[in-house]
Amino acid sequence: MEAYQTFHGKCFAVSLFFRKFAPHKEPVPPIFNPLTLNNMKHIFQLTLLLAFLSCSADDDQRKTVLWLGTSIPQGCSYPRVSCENNQMKCINKAVGASFLCQWSEDYDFQKTSSGLSLSMSSDEKETMFRKYVENDSITEETLDFWKKSSYDYLLLPYVRNADIVVIDHGYNDNFSLQKIYDEGEANIDWNTDDRTSFIGAFNFIYRLIRDNNPEAKVILGGYFQDKCTTDYFIRGKWTATVLTWMARHYDLALLDVWNYTDIPDGYMPDSQDYLSLLNEQYGKSFEKLFPDEDGNITWFQKFCPDGVHPYSDPTGHSDQTLNRIFSDMLFQVTNELEASNP
Fold first, then answer.
1. Which of 81, 65, 142 is nearest to 109 (CA)?
2. Which residues are CB-contacts of 103 (< 8 A; sequence separation ≥ 6)?
3. What pLDDT, in 10s, does the model give residues 78-110?
4. Of 17, 29, 49, 237, which is least surrounded by CB within 10 A?
């Protein structure tokens, strides 16, 4: 915004100056001769050009943030808004249903998502998933999309020009994260190269970032709750806990957004009609997930009416809450990084 304001301030001043003194069709006073007016014209053009160049320089000084993640940062506005509020440029390469780990054939094959691993290359996916095209489990278009959701498409083309890389993953890596969480921090193999493990997949991506841009700052985190325990909502606890362990081990900045959203566990009192009223007002079709015996919905579903995404809240409250928290946290974290690495 500062660069934007600077640009318009300069251009407005130049335009006023140009309108006041530039040549026009009215009779020219004797004191001005054509040569003088022609020189002035070039001076005005040069001044205007310098104003634009100055603005471009201001824009180029902004830090670039490469944001990687799931459908949550893909659909929510917080990557863009938090960067804009901190005078940064955002390259959002989050992909819905994607995950960090390499898919394993030990898992059930999912026609829509099994090939959306960030830590696999497009060539590896061609080798692993071609047979699913040949047996008509997936289409050629699906395989092509999976291949374009690989690190050689989403990370490598952008990381060299990134000042910051945010890894906003974890929620869709629930199989690996639950295992890591259950076994405890003391039993983590921090040196693993096994990309079917969240730690191994992170080690692989982290090395790619370091190899291609040693100066880039890596920031972990972003998930928005860690208290809800009803059914699959507990994924937030696994994600937040393991990311906290990782930030401590790797000495990385952490966006612990879950500590600031204030989404409690349990049920919202007198919420039996909340979703039906929301559906009526906004033309939605949300259904209750895991209601209590009185028909109340969870606090989690108030924040995410579709049961997963904050941006599904048609009131905009959830998205705006995350915009505010991410903006404040990105400001704090980046300033701490600058202070520690001047």
1. 142
2. 114, 115, 117, 120, 128, 196
3. 999 999 999 999 999 999 999 999 998 888 999
4. 29
